[in-house]
């Protein structure tokens, strides 16, 4: 058996069922579902560097990866900013690391290094205890999740005092001002257009608009989120949660759910209500709501841990990682040597300026 390399945009539709079958056999992670993956490929359609689909066609040990060339002899998983984890799938019986090493020799041109990016230690085919010299494990970020154990009161009493006091104070102030604070859950495919329109309005009211990264109602990001939500809502696996002040949305969170796991993809709030911290109020309401649903067991943030947000909500932290596979140990040494030379030269130039 050998690896097949094809243009992903053209090939993925015909392999879509095989991709989903392989995902289902290895944990059925919703972020690796084709309903999430294919819209990412569509969003990347106009990019100069094409995404490639690498397929190991074996009845007993199939494997599939989405790749992009990142330099001379350098390759990495296709990793758009909207995807928190690496898009790679291996049969449970396969030796994933050996298969990746084989893939290096099948890539177009000379494959020197292949980066397997953004691996969740709870959902990965690669073991960090692997110490072979042509493999390099690199810390990526710490990410957090909320384990929905016991009940909400137990969870809430275990959170920082300032979070509980501040949210209570904000609610009392809203009540004095005659503002009704309510959680709204949108779950129907037909509600997603309006939901993304509201979300976009909120992001465009704040710093993300000023930095040029805000989701637009009709831009590629907005189109992507609307598309995946419509697809997942058809299966009861998508939701937009909105916090309403007197019936008007002031904060919004985009989520997808499967197997008792809720993944928070995006959160935004209307900056004109900044003093009321609607994002914090919304998060509390969502967690309270999830505790009432006995099918839910955890909420994933899949983002960099921060003191001012993640650690307010959870103490459950783990470290994601990348792993680089080099053609051999000599290539690894050579690449690191070149990087050190370039780093020194850059430092010298900065010192001269």
TrEMBL record:
GO MF annotation list: transferase activity
Record keywords: Transferase
Record protein name field: Acetyltransferase (GNAT) domain-containing protein
Entry keyword annotation includes Transferase: yes
Domain of life: Bacteria
Keyword Translocase recorded: no
Domain BioF2-like acetyltransferase per the UniProt entry, residue ranges: 164-303
InterPro entries in the cross-refs: Acyl_CoA_acyltransferase, BioF2-like_GNAT_dom
